[in-house]
Specification:
The protein has about 210 residues and is of the alpha+beta class. It folds into 2 domains: about 1-50 and about 180-205, no CATH class; about 55-180, no CATH class. The chain has helices at about 100-110, 115, 125-130, 130-140, 145-150, 165-180; strands spanning about 30-35, 40, 45-55, 55-65, 70-80, 85, 95, 180-185. It has a 4-stranded mixed β-sheet with strand order 5-4-6-7. It has a two-stranded antiparallel ribbon with strand order 1-2. A two-stranded antiparallel ribbon has the order 3-8.
Length: about 210
Amino acid sequence: MSKIRKGAFVKKIQDIGVGTALAVALFSGPTFLTGCSSQQENEADYSYEETTYSKGIRSHIKEVSPGEFKIIDEEAVEVDQSVAIVSYLDGHTDSLSIAASKALIDKELSGNQSQVSSHHSSGLSSMLLYGGMGYMLGRGMGNGYINNFRNNNPNPGASYANPATYSKAQSAVSNVDASRSTRTVNTRPAGGRSGFFGRSANRSGG
């Protein structure tokens, strides 16, 4: 039997017969597993990287004139406390979750992309898109289109009440970025193993 490549981590298999998916924790880079068979399987073909954040953003947005908004404060919070708190001229307040914020952004982008991309809008959706909530959403899988709009913004500080508010928001974003962690998730089908894992347990030779 050939040797396992240096640096590879092999998860102990427990109770293969139950048919549940096995999670493989990989410490660094893709893992390659070499068995007795001459056909080697690349573990990277059955894995992907999952990135999570322990910190999120709390964004405070204020209506400064009818239909026009500014971000007046942003801070880093625990990720499950991420929210956009919106204060309106009539005195009422809304709390928008990440999902609710994304829904408003998507609605704006689907019906008015030229206005949003031209950065002429100072509406609530634009504050969500170009502020901390948009930053959080842009890190999610499949949300690259949000980053495309954010990256094309020539004046990212325009959504904030003043330069000091924008500077504080950038510090909050840095704190969120520092909380990022990445792990590799194995997606190999429970019944689809071959090579090393497919061999009978009573065989030890090639």
